Every structure is written in C-alpha cells, then in structure tokens.
Amino acid sequence: MMKGRWLLQAVLCWLVAGTSAGAWASASHTALLAAFCASDSNKSVALERIVDAGVSDTARDQAWARQIVDAIRNSALVCDTGGGATIKGAQPLDADTLKAVASPAASDSPYVPSIVMMRKLAVASAELDLFSAQRDTRVAAATQIDKFFGLLDPEIVSQAIKHERDPDVASLLTLAMAKRGLGSSDRVERLAAIKAVAEVPSETARTTLANFVAQDSARSDPQVLAAAQGAIKHIDTALSFGHAFSILFSGLSYAGVLLLTALGLSIVFGLMGVINLAHGEFIMIGAYSTYLVERFVQAHMPAYFDAYIFVAIPVAFLISAVCGMLLEFFVIRFLYRRPLETLLATWAVSIALIKLVQVLFGSQNVEFVTPGFLNGGMQVSPGFFVTYNRVFAIVLALLIFLATFAVVRLTKLGLLMRATTQLRDMARCLGVAAERVDRLAFGLGAGLAGLAGVVLTQIASVNPSMGTGFVVDSFMVVVLGGAGSLLGTVVSSLALGEINQFIEPFYGAVAAKVAVLLLIVLIIQKRPQGLFALKTRV
Amino acid sequence: MKRRTFLSAVGSGLVTAAGTTLPKAALAAGSTEPIKLGLLFSQSGTMANNESLLKDTALMTIDQVNAKGGVLGRQVQGVVVDPASDWPMYAQLSKQLIQRDKCAALFGCWTSVSRKSVLPVVEANDSLLFYPLHFEGEEQSKNVVYLNSPPSSSVLPAIDYLMGDQGGNAKRFYMIGSDYVWPRTINKMLKGYFKTKNIPDSALRERYVPFGQSNFQTIVREIKDFAAQPGGQAIVVMTVVGDSIPAMFKEAVNQGIRATDIPILGLDVVDSDLEGLDTKPLVGNLSCWCYFQNVDTPQNTQFKNDWKNYVAAHALKHRPDMVIDPMVSTYLGINLWAQAVTKAKSTSTDAVRKALAGQSMIDPAGYKVTMDASSQYLWRGDMIGSINANQGFDILWKSKDIVKPVPFNPFTGKA
User: Fold this and answer.
1) Cβ(A247)–Cβ(A505) under 8 Å?
2) Which phi and psi (to 5°) does residue A331 adopt?
3) Separation between Cα atoms, residue A388 and residue A498, nearest integer Å
4) What H or E segment, with its residue span, contains residue B236?
5) In a mutagenesis test of the A interface, which of B5, B46, B53, B218 is the best target, namely the one with the most A β-carbons within 10 Å?
6) CA closest to B389 among chain A residues
7) Of A48, A250, A313, A499, which has the most beta carbons under 10 Å away?
8) Contact A309/A458 with Cβ under 8 angstroms?
9) At what angle do helices A434-456 and A222-265 cross, to 10 degrees?
C-alpha cells in the first residue's frame, strides 16, 4: 500500500512539475506531515518547518503550506495511524498531494489545536500572508504579527521587511521586531525598543512594558528602567483619555437603545394616555419582520444581502404599525379613559402575541447574519474602541427621533394628534375625525417600536419574549421625561443611559440598575409630572 | 414584571396541562393507568431556548421507553408544564405535579435557583427530582438525583488545563457571571482553589450582571483592561446564562477579542447558545461538559439519529442536528429511572431510591455511567470542548474513565 502510494506520488509529481525537484518537494511534504502527525512530536517545531516550506520560492510549496496551515487551524487535518493525513471537508483531500481521496476512517479524529497552538497558527498563517500580493492581506498579517510579537520567526520577518515596499506594513513589522528587542541585552537596542513601543500607545503596549519593568534584567539598568517607566506613564495618559471617551460612548449607545424603545411609547402613553403593556411585543414584531426580510433577501437577492437592514426599516415599520392599528381598532378604542382595563387588555394581548410568535417561529433565539459593515469596530484612539453596531444604533435613534419630532410638530397629522389628545371634545367640535387620528397615532407609536426592533436585531438576542425586558425600561424613560414631551424622552434616555454607564464600571451592572431606579423614584417624588411637563390649560 | 410573568405562566401552564391530558387511546390500550412523570421545563422567558430542548428530549425518551413496552407493564406519560423562567413558579408547578397530577417523579430545572426553589417541595412531599445540569454542588438531598457533574469533576479539570502548558499558562482570572447562586458558588470555589495554587487576589476579578443582561460594553472593556495589566496571561471564566451568553460573545468579538488573546471558558455555553452567532471569530473559546455532540461512538450516532427523527416527526422548531449535554443527561435520567422502577417493581420514592444506587448504562459519550451508591450523583466522563467555525465544539480533551463526583468541594470553604 505504502509503496504503491509512493510510486503514484512520484509519477504524479513528475507529471505536474516535470522535474526531479518536484518529486523531491513532495517527498519533503510527506516528511513534514509525518513530523507533525507523529504522536510524540513537538507540534510547534513541525509547524515552523511547514511555514519555512511555505515562504520558499516555489509556488507549489507556498500553496501547499497555506492549505495545510488553514486545515490545522480549522481542525480539519486528520492524521491516520499510517503516518499520512487527510484534510476533512465536503471533498476530502490527501494532505500530501492535495488530491481527492475517500473520507478518513471514523476512528481517526482531527487534530484540535490548543490555545497555545492557535496563537502559533495565527502567527504562522500571518507569516505566509506577508508575501501575498494584496496589500490589505499584508497589513492584516503584519498587525497580527505585531500582536504576537513574542512568537514571530525573526528570519522570515526580516526577509519580509527587506521585500516590503509599502511603508505602513514595513513599519508595523519593524515595530514587532523592536518589541522583540526588549529582550535583547544591548542597552541601545532596548531603549530603541521602548521608544518604538511607546510611540503607538495601546493596551498591549502597556502590558509589554509593564511585564518588561517587572523583569530583573530591566531593573538592574536604571536608564532603561526610567525610560520604560516614562513610557508607561505616557501610555497611561493616552489610555485614560480613551477610557473616558468609551464611558461616554457606551452611555450614549445605551441611551440610543432606550430612546428607540421609548419613542413609540412616548406617543402612545405620553400623548394618548394609553398604558400599552404590549409595547415590547411591537418591538419583537419589528425584529421578526427584520428576520423575514433577511431570509427573503438571502434567498432571492444574495448580491444585495448587506442592504437588508435598510429594506427592513420600512417593512418593520409598516407591519408593526398595521398590527398596532388592528389592536387599536379591535381592543383599545373601546377602552379609552379606562386605564385599568386598558392595562389588563394589553397585558393579555402581549401574552397572546408572545405565544403566537412562539408557535410560528419556535422559542429559540433567531439567527441573524450581521451585515458586513456592522461587524467589528474601530480603534478611535488608544483605549477607545467603537463598535459599528452601536454607532448604527445611535445614528438611527437620532434620525428616527428627528423624523418623529417633525411628524408631531410640523405635519397636519401631528397637529390633529396633539389637538385630539389635549382636548378631544373641542377637537371633535371643530371637525377633527378623532377616531381616525387615534388609530393613526397608535399605529405611529407601534411602528416606531417596530423600528426599535430592527436596530435591536444587531445588538440584543431576538426571541419571542425579548419585548418584556424593554417595556419596563421604556415606561421608566417616558415617565421620567414627562408624559407627552418628546424632548423629555430624549433628555431622560440620555440621562439614564449616561448615569447607568458611569456607575457600572465602578460598582457593577446590578448596582447601576438599582441606583438608576432609586434616582427615578426620587425625581418622580419631587416632580410627579416628569422632567418636561406639557403645559395645558385643562 | 413579576406579576406579569406570573400570570403569563399560570395561563400557559394551564393551557399546556390541558393540552397534554391523557390521550384516550393510551387509556384504552393499557389495563392500568399510565405512570406519570412531571416535566418541569420552561417554554417561555429567558430559559425557554434551552429548557424546551430538554422537554422534548424527555418526551422522546418516554416514547422510547413506551415503545419497549413501558415500565412494569404500564405506559409512561409525561405531564408538561411551563414555569416561564420564573423561579417561584417552579415550586408552585412542582407541587401541582406531585399533588394534583400524582407524578411518580419530576424531571426538570436548568438554573440552580429553580432547583433550589423546587427542593423544599420535593422534600416535603418525599418525591424525586431528576436534575440534568452540571451545577455548583454543595447540595445533597435524598429527594434529588443529580445527573450531571459537580464542579470538582468538570470545572476544575478545565481550569487546570488552562493553567497548564497546553492551555497557555493562565495566571490571571476574570470571573463574570449572572447574579445568582450558581455563578457565585462556582466563583467562590474557584477563589478557594486559586488560593491553594498561590494566585494572589490581585490577579482575580469577580463581576456579576443581572439576569438577561444584554449590554456588555463596560464588561468587555474592563476585560481588555484587566488583560493589559502585567502578571501573566489572563482568561475569562464566564458563568453568565441564557441570552447573556450570545450577547457577551458578540460584544467580545466586536471589540476585537479573540480566543488567542483572551480565551473565554464559558461554563454554561452549549451548542444551542451558539445558534444565532457567527462562530468564526469565536473559534478556540472553551467549555466543559460530560458530553459534546462531536464525540464518535455508536451510541451517540444512535442518539443523534433518534433526535433528528423525533424533531422531523413532530415538526419541532429545534435544530435536528444539534444535541447538548443536558439533553443527554435528561435521556440518561429517564432511562435510569425506568431501570430502577423495573428493579424495584414499584414507583414509590423509597423503593426507586434504593434501586437507583449502582444503576448503570452506556451513555452517548461512550462511558459506562454509574449512579453513586450513596450520594445520588451520577459518575460520568468529562470533556473540554473548543468552539469551532460550524457553531459546535471540537473535543480538546477527555477523561479516560468516569470521574467520581464530589458533592461538597473542599475549596469552597477556603475562599
């Protein structure tokens, strides 16, 4: 068997490469794999040798090493007892020749890399990428190598620096090499390393220096020690600014979520005086509408997949608004000015909606594929990292608020709405179709809740009972802001969000919640009408 | 809020209870009435996602037992209620199951707080609760059968692994949990354990978030900060539960944390928690259980097939290709109960309890699990899993044999 395979390989290689060098390379692949697969082998040394092969000149070796490293990373490499290996997948490949083979025996399980090995694999993969033709790939690879500078292979990296034409990539790699230089015994090299590290302040830079200062070799040299301590101080200053900004930012993003969820309620409860406990379920309906849109776009227009979130905005608004108007037509309109009955009825509706969605979609969390542009985030300054989904939430909350404000303040519908809710009888005397206005206003409120649902798909988990948590927060915001005042809703959500996030880092999330609730109790005692009360003559 | 969920739970509890009343055919077929088992799993609220899986596993296993002729010549029937993730409801419904429905035994609960709320009820009524989750230990009631491992045999091996060479020599630990008994006890035990390993208090940080917390911005930022302090590799020991798990993972990924930077050991993370997530950036984060679905045994293939067919046949909303440890525990529990009843020739609590001691079977993970003769804890194997790109776990390490469960941990008192 083995013999036949060798022969086959040799013939294949001869056919492919057409030279004896090809046959030699393949034999070395076999040896590299065998070294990696041996049960008592040092996997990281074996990996280094595979990477060495990958940065050699032959394109075949490069492609081979790339595929092997990826396979190990994805725990897809299955070593068999005979010393050979297979790459698992839809079409299993022989790891040596990369030719299709039958699936490996069930008894052989793939090699699962440990955390330590995964770090080495990350560096290995990045080292291979350093010689890619794409600039972006090289930048990403250099960043990765800089992060795990302790593990880099100095020969490969200096070779890459020599070849590199792009200044950004080269400087990143030089920085990584410099960090390694901290461990050197030469004072000049160490000072240069400290300087290089301090120039790019970050959490990892601080860790590097702090660990360095703790070493005896650093303590024995006062000049190096002073330089390192100075650098730490410099980094700390930069980081503390970053931290202050991040607290502000997370307060802002929490406020954005509060504003989004409360806006609809501030119309329904604030303007119309309806205690709608099913408010959270409209949020949930919005989220599930987004889910349907996502599925639809994925099935029919995969090219425009990332845009589904924008398609979902009007769809979720309409679906929730229609549901809201139906609720108003069948339930609420018989109950105006009877708050206790409204409360009970909407409560029942809320439970019914949760159960209905549970029957239709199941009770598990719904899977969303986040559009590409909302994934990840950006390092704005040292210690200040902004995630795109939160920025999206803040911006959308602001836009939706402005739109709502415009509708209520500037359009005829808004005027009629305000008139009806303030003095219903007088409005009707003047010919306002109060019933229709009520329905539209309720629909608007429900639709806004639906919009909150769209945004929340990117932040929170979506399941049938997701709305229950938000309804309490929404009432809190509206009551604190003052019923009927949109501006009050903004101010109170901003205040609650920021206060919550200011307390959390120091006393924990539980304490923050308690503090915020106590604060609301105190404020409501002093100002039962809320922060911004609507002045009417009634 | 409390009353709201309470009412909803009562409503749905009645509806489901009414829905599953005796099918007439079952009555006509057996000469005697079926033996009833109470299934106390939430189908709404924050735990619904996970607990509804256990409810359906229990019903599937009961079907299997019935297909083999039932127990003592009688059919077995599951009585389903919905405690709606509301802890006091578990107590109330368990009382109803025992007293009104005359259930022979109860299977249920996910969180420890729900078990603690059922505990006085089963003790007062001298019934049996089969509990399928791994938990904090520190409890041994003659009315509870513990089907999963206490921390000494699941959490500590994983921590040891992470502190070893292969795990990256973790020296500093950020413990983040939901605010209730399981995370707090686990962390208390860990602190005691770390003390014996000479890890200073400054290398530990302990944080709790409210149930259902979805905003982890501050926590993740603090983790990054913590990891940047000197003193060695930091890891996160995560004991948040329910919806907080995907939320925490999402935030960590968005803020750029990978397992290679700061590994997260999620003690309550199962495959179903990864359902809504893109797990590519999560690859390498860890969890420890007595079973992962990627284990390669004929029993496991059988179990997974049964589940797939059951999901298809009953048009359930669950993923047909996903099986998690607590489901296996539930399955083991019902089978062990059936074995014990057969041996005891009675369903009375006392007889079943006596017959249970020493019962064993081959579990889907391939171990011969055995009920401890005295503690009513199940001896099981132990595994560490590493999240892969396909929303599942690869098995990084597994124990050679079943591990002795130690209900009361010596480290807890040392903290």
Assistant:
1) yes
2) -125, -60
3) 19
4) strand B234-239
5) B218
6) A74
7) A250
8) yes
9) 150
- Domain ranges (residues) in chain A: 2-160, 241-471
CB contact under 8 A, B251 and A472: no
Q: What are phi and psi for residue B378, nearest 5 degrees?
A: -95, 130
- Smallest CA–CA separation between A353 and chain B, in Å? 11
Using CA coordinates, name the residue in chain A closest to B214.
A460
User: Which pair of tokens denotes residue B199?
Assistant: 């890890």
Closest by CA position to A272, among listed A416, A379, A417: A417
Q: Which of B276, B317, B395 shows the shortest C-beta gap to A362?
A: B317
Residues shown for chain A = 538
What single-letter DSSP state applies at residue B216?
A: -
Task: Judge whether B191 and B237 are in contact, CB under 8 Å.
Answer: no
Answer yes or no: are the C-beta atoms of B77 and B22 closer than 8 Å.
yes
Q: Does A433 touch chain B (CB under 8 A)?
A: no
> In Å, how far is A415's CA from the nearest CA of chain B?
35
Q: Which residues in chain A have their CB less than 8 angstroms from residue B388's CB?
A: 74-75
Question: Which stretches of B229-348 are DSSP H helices?
Answer: 244-254, 298-313, 325-344
| Secondary structure class of B177 (helix, strand, coil) | strand
**CA angle in degrees (0–180, nearest 5) for A285-A291-A296:** 130
What's the pTM value of the predicted model, to 2 decimals?
A: 0.77
As given in the structure block, the two tokens for residue A37 are 């697969």
Convert A99-123 to b/e letters by CB count within 10 Å (16 or more is b): eebeebeeebbbbbbbbbbbbbbbb
| Distance of alpha carbon B395 from alpha carbon B397, whole angstroms | 6
A111 DSSP assignment:
P
Tokens of B98: 């025992």
Contact (Cβ atoms closer than 8 angstroms) between residue A39 and residue A81: no
Q: Report the residue of B16, B161, B260 to disrupt the A interface, i.e. the one with the largest count of A CBs within 10 Å.
A: B260
Beta-carbon contacts of residue B356 (< 8 Å; ≥ 6 apart): B145, B336, B337, B340, B371, B376
pLDDT tens-digit map of A177-217: 888 777 777 788 788 888 888 887 887 788 888 888 877 77
pLDDT of B6 over the 80 cut: no
Name the token pair of A268: 């329904």
- CA B149 – CA B50 distance, rounded (Å): 18
Strand partners, B369: B361
- What are the C-alpha distances in Å from A150 to residues A146, A197, A208, A225? 9, 14, 10, 21
Helix (H) or strand (E) holding B379: strand B378-379
The reported pLDDT for the residue numbered B355 is 95
Name the residue with tokens 């005359």.
B102
Residue whose C-alpha is closest to residue A97's, from A25, A42, A3? A25
ipTM over 0.90: no
Both tokens of residue B117? 């709320």
Closest CA–CA distance from residue A367 to any residue of chain B (Å): 4
CB proximity A531 to B under 8 Å: no
Sequence letter at residue B88: P
Q: What is the pLDDT of residues A481-501, one digit of tens each?
A: 887 788 899 999 999 999 988
Residues 241-270 of A with CB under 8 A from B: 243, 246-247, 250, 253-254, 257
CB within 8 Å: A460 and B179: no
Structure tokens at A153: 């292979």
Query: What pairing do the DSSP bridges indicate for beta strands B204-209 and B234-239?
Result: unpaired
Residues 376-395, chain A: which have Cβ within 8 Å of B?
Answer: 376-377, 379, 385, 387-390
Helix runs in A423-481, H state only: 424-429, 434-456, 467-481
Task: Give the C-alpha separation, A189 to A195, whole Å.
Answer: 10
Among B116, B114, B94, B112, which Cα is nearest to B39's?
B94
Q: What is the pLDDT of residues A510-534, one digit of tens each?
A: 888 888 889 989 988 888 888 887 6
